[in-house]
Records
---
Amino acid sequence: MESGEVQLMPCHHVNAVGPMGGITSAHMPLLVVENQTDGNRAYCTMNKGIGAVLRFGANGPEVIEHLKWMRDVLGPVLSLALQNREPLNVNVLVTKAIAMGDEFHQRNIAASLAFLKEMAPTIEGLDIEEDKKQAVIQFLADTDQFFFNVMMASAKSAMDGARQIQEGTIVTAMCRNGHEFGIRIAGMGDEWFTGPVNTPKGLYFSGFSEEDASPDMGDSAITETFGVGGFAMIAAPAVTRFVGTGGFDDALRMLTLLKRPDIPVAAGAQVPLVKPLETAPEVHGETGLDGADLPEPGFLPQSLPAIELMARVLQESTEKVTLVVTRPMINAVLFLRTCPDLAREKIDQIVFMGGAMGLGNWQPSVEFNIFVDPEAAKIVLNFGLPLVMVPLNVTHQAQITKPEIDEIAQLDNPVAQAFVGLLNFFERYHEDPKWDFVGAPLHDPCTIAWLINPALFDGVDINVDVETTGELTRGETVCDYYHLTGKPVNTKLLLKVDRAGFISLVKELLASFG
C-alpha cells in the first residue's frame, strides 16, 4: 500500500457493500443482486461463517485456507446451482423470514434456512463431486448469518435505485470506516456527509473491554438505510423476548413476590427459528400465570438482550454454570450459536423440561415445549454439552393432589398462596378424563428438584435427537433407549421420580418463605 501498488476505495464506489472490515478483492466470489425495477445491480461478498474470519480482522493460515475454499468450492458450487434454476426472488425470502422473526442485521436465521431450502435440492442435483456438495450444504446449514450478506446486497441495489431520484432528501447510504460515519443523499450525487463515528458499547470476549475496541466500521448499516435491521426489530420481535405464554413481565412480578430483585431479567426472543409461534393459553392462562395474585414489578429488566445477559453472567462467574430451560429453546440456541466458545468453557450442563419417550401432550408423540421450536431443540441437543432431559414420562409422575394443595394453602406466606392460586387454575386443564391423572403434574419444578436432590430421580444415559421433518412426528424427541443407532450418548433421560419425596421437597421449600 505504501508503494501505491494496492489501492483502497469504499465498497460503495463500485456498487458493493462489505460487512465489518468490508474487505473485498478481485479474487473473492461475490453475491449479485439485480434490482429489476431500476435496472441496476449490487454486490457483496459471501458470509464467511463464525469464528476467526476476515471480516473481524482475523488473519492467519486458517483464515486464508477458508478464503481459498470459498473461492474454489463455495462460490463455484453456488454459481453453478443458480445457473441451473430460475433466479432467486429475494423479496419472497425476506417476506417469509421477517414473519418468522428475522430483522436482517443481527438475526438472519430464518432467511438463511429459507435460502438453504431453496438451494439444497439444486445443489444435490449437480454433476459434481459429492464431497463438495456435502461441504457446501453443511456450511449453509451451519451459517446462521449467511443471508445477512444477501440482504446487504439487496438493500444496496434498492438504495442505489433511489439514487436516481434527482430531487429529494432520501438517505441512500449509511456506513462507517473506523474513523467517520457517512451518509449519501439522493439528489446530492456522490458526495458524502460525514461526522465522527462511535465505539460500540456491546458484548466483548473475556479479558477485553471497550478500551480494546476500534471505532465502528462496515457497510452493514445499509440494512437500516433500507428500513430493516434496527428499524425492523419491533416488527420482528425475535430480538426482544419469547412469549410462549406470558413474558418477562411475569418473571419480574414473580421475583418481586420472592423479594429477589438481585436476579437480573432480560428480554429474549419471541418467535421460533422456523415455524410460526403457537401458544397454550388454555393450560396456563392468557398471562402465563393465571390464578396467582402477583404484585406489580418492583424493578426494571436489564436493557441488554437476553443472550448478552447470559454471556455476562457466564463471563463473570468463577465456576461453571448450569443452564435450566423450561420453555422452548430459542434463547438457548441463539446464545450457543452466538457465543459457542464461551458456552463450552462455562456451561457445565443444560437441564431442560421438554420432550418425552413415547408420550405427547400436544401431538400424540410430541411434548409442547419441543413442538413450539423443534429446530432450536435439535441444535441444542446436538451442540455437544452435557444434557439432562426432564420429559413427560417423569413429570406426569410428579403430580400434586388436591389434598396436598389444600395442605399448602394453610401456609401463611404470599409465595405459598401464589403457588396455590396457580395450581387451582392449572389443575382444571388436567381434570379432563383423557389424562387419567389424580392431580396436576408439576413439570418445570422437576428441573430444579433434580438439581437440589438428584437421588429423587432415576434415569438412563442415552442419545436423544429431535425429529424436524415428520408429518405426524415433527418435534418428537427420539430416545435411543436400546442404543440402536450407535450415536454417542448425549443426554441423561430421567424416567422415574420418588413422588412422595418430591412433594415433600416442594412443601419444605414453600414453607421456607414464611
Note: The CA atoms of residues 21 and 56 lie 6 Å apart.
---
Amino acid sequence: MTKAIAVRYRGRRPVLVGVDGSVSAQGALSWAAAEASYRHCPLHIVHAVNWPTIGNPLDRSVVGPMTDGLRAAAEWVLGDAENHARRAAPGIGVTAELFIAGTAPTLLSQAQHAELVVVGSRGIGGFRGLLVGSVSATLAAHAPCPVIVVRPHREGAAFRASPRGRIVVGVDGSEVSTAAIRFAFQETARRHVGVIAVHAAMPRRRHPSHGMSAAVVAQLEQQLFGESLDHLRIRGIGLQTKLVRSHPAQALIDESAGAELVVVRSHGRGGFAGMLLGSVSQAVLQHASCPVAAPDAVVHLLTRIPARIDPKRMSRDFAQTNRLRTQGTLNLVDAAHQAGAKRVITQGLAYVYEPKRPGLATEDEPFWHHPPKEFRPVLDALRELEELTEEAGGLVLRLGHLYGPGTIYAPDGAFIGLVRAGKVPIIGPGTGTFSFTHTDDAAGAIAAALDSTVSGALNVVDDEPAHVREWLPVLARLLNAPQPIRVPAALARLAIGSWGVAFMTRLRGADNTNARCVLDWRPNYPSWRQGFAAELSREGSAP
C-alpha cells in the first residue's frame, strides 16, 4: 500500500472478504473490491486454511506443521486474490493475511473490526446442491457487522462488471425491517440502481381477521406497507413497491431473479429472542439467485416536516416529527438491540444551542435554556432523542440548516420560492447566525460515522457560519430576486411570532472542529456560497 493510500484510509474500518480459490470466492472478491471503492475504505483479504486436526471435538490438536507445498499453495491463493483486487479497484488500499485456522471462526474474529464482510455462497469444500455453505450461513447469522453472501451469476461469470438489476428488500412493518430498507437505499445510491420493496402476505383459505372482508384486509395491508416506506423515501432513488400473496421467503426468492442484491434482516415480526437469523432470511440465503446482504446498523433520520411551516404553530407542524424523535427513536433503538446491531446513528440539530453565549457553539455547550414557547416541544423532543442515543452508545450527528435536493433551499423548495417572490425580509439587525449543511456533506458524515466507533454528539456543519443579513442578500442575487427589505422585530413578531423572530435574529452558529478531527470528515462545500451557487447553477433554476 502506498503512503498516500495509507494516509487516506487511516482510521477507517475495512471491507473484509474471505477467499479460497473457488469461483464463488472470486465473485465475493470482486464484489468486496467494488464495495471498498464505493465506501472509500480499505480491503482486507483473508484466506484461512483448516490444517488437519486429531482428537475429539472438544480437544482438537494440530496434526503437525503445514507442509511447504500446502503453505505455498495457500500463499498463491492469497497472492492471486490480492493482485486481482488491485486490478479491479486500483484506488483502494489492499492487505492480505493467511490464517492456519477454521474459516468461520477466523472471519467472525476479523469481522469485529470490519465495516462489512463479503463471502462466497459456497467454498471449494461445499456439497453439491447446497447453495449456501456452513461458513456463509454462520457469518450471516452471527457476524457483528453487515454480511453480503455472493453467488456466481448463472451465465458462469463470478461477478457482473456493471450493475444491471435492482436491489430487493423485504418489508414487514417492523422496526427491524427499517434497518434493512435504509441499507438497501445506501447500496442503491452507491450503485445508481433502483429499489424493489416487497411486502408478502401469506395466502390463506380463511384469513385470521375474524370475518373481515378481503377488501378491508387488502386495505390494511396496503396501509402497513405505506407506513413502512413513507418516511424512508429518498429523492432521486427509484422505488418500486410490490404487495404479493406468497410466503415472504418465496416472494424474495422470486424477486431475486435478475436482481443486483437482496437485503434481509435477522428477524422481523415473527422473530424470537436469540434467533439471530430468521427462517425467511435462511431460506433466501439458500435459494436466492443473486447476492444477499444482512445489514447491522441503524441510521435514524426520520422526520415529517411540512413543506411550509407556520412559526406561530410550531407545536402543530412538528407534532409528527417530535413523535418520530421520541417514540420513533425508542422503537428503533429497541429494534437495533434485538437485531444485534452494533451501531446507532441519529440526526440532531446544530442550531439549538444557548444563544446568550459568545462565539461558535461546541458540542459540550448546553441547549437553549429558555426558548420561545412555540419551540419548546421541538427542543424537548431533541433532548429525548439524544438521551436515547446516548443510552444506546450511539452517535448524534447535529446537522445545520440542510440545503440541497429535497430541502426547502432546493430550487423548487418552499423557502427559495419565498425569496424569489421577495417575501423573506431581514428582521431587525439580521443577526441570526446560520451554519449550513449540504445534503451531500450530511451523507458523507453518516458514511464516516458508520466507519467509526465514536459516540456522543458531533456538529456536522460547513466552515462559514453567516448572519442572515449576509447570506440572504447573496441568495437573492443568485436567484435574480428582489433584495430583501428590512422589517423591525416588533412588527415581524405580529406576523411570525416570537420563534420566527428568534430564528432570524438569535440563532447561534456551530463549530465543526470535532467532526473534522474524529471522523476525518471534510465538507465538499466548505461554504454555503459555493453550495448555493453550485445547486442553483446545476439545476438551471435562475430565471
Note: DSSP finds 18 helices and 22 strands in the chain.
